[in-house]
Amino acid sequence: MTEDNERGFATGWLPGRLSERGRSNAADMGRRRDDGIAAVFSSDLRRAAHTAEIAFGATNIPILYDWRLRECDFGEHNGSPSSEVGRDRLAYVDSPYPGGESHRQAITRAAGVFPDLFTRWRGRRVMVIGHLATYRALEHAAHGRTIHDLVAETFEWRPEGWEYTLD
Question: Which residue ranges run through the membrane (predicted)?
């Protein structure tokens, strides 16, 4: 959870800052998820990187940062009210936000990380810390859900996270 989330803004590619609740959730995640994870892959945006550092910074688990795990770039709408970005999101499934990218581009970019995981981490548990675009990329890759359906649905946060098996 970020300060922007709590105030009702869509951070997009802005760095963002974890709120007190976000820092607490990150610490809980580290305690809950230190169970055989071989590596952590995180978006390089400050809020995700800070989550990874709080959760796993004091462990021997390597944290690898990848810009491809970033949120959708809302372009001129980065930092806009979440209600506005959410209301118009279907208009940007295939058309880029002004000065940004489309949801399809963001999901495709994030999904580009997954084949790279097999290079060194095949058969091992890894954690991915990202954003809504990362979740959508995982749902698309693991379950074949359409990008339009993923963007259309109302996202529900799960503090325990999600678990995927990618082949």
Answer: none
**Any domain includes 164:** no
Q: Which residues, listed in sequence order, are joined to residue 40 by a DSSP beta bridge?
A: 63, 127
Residue type, 141: A
Buried b (16+ CB within 10 A) or exposed e, 72-91: bbbbebbebeeeebeeebee
DSSP state of 41: E
SS3 assignment for the chain: CEHHHHHCEECCCCCCCECHHHHHHHHHHHHHHCCCEEEEEECCCHHHHHHHHHHHCCCCCCEEECHHHCCCCCHHHCCEEHHHHHHCHHHHCCCCCCCCCCHHHHHHHHHCHHHHHHHHHCCCEEEEECCHHHHHHHHHHHHCCCHHHHHHCCCCCCCCCCCCCCC
Summarize the confidence of residues 95-106 as an average pLDDT.
98
Number of domains in the chain: 1
CA distance 36 to 111: 23
In the DSSP assignment, the letter for residue 2 is: B
Helix (H, G, I), strand (E, B) or coil at 81: strand
The CATH number given to whatever domain includes residue 71 is 3.40.50.1240
Structural domain boundaries, residue 57:
3-152
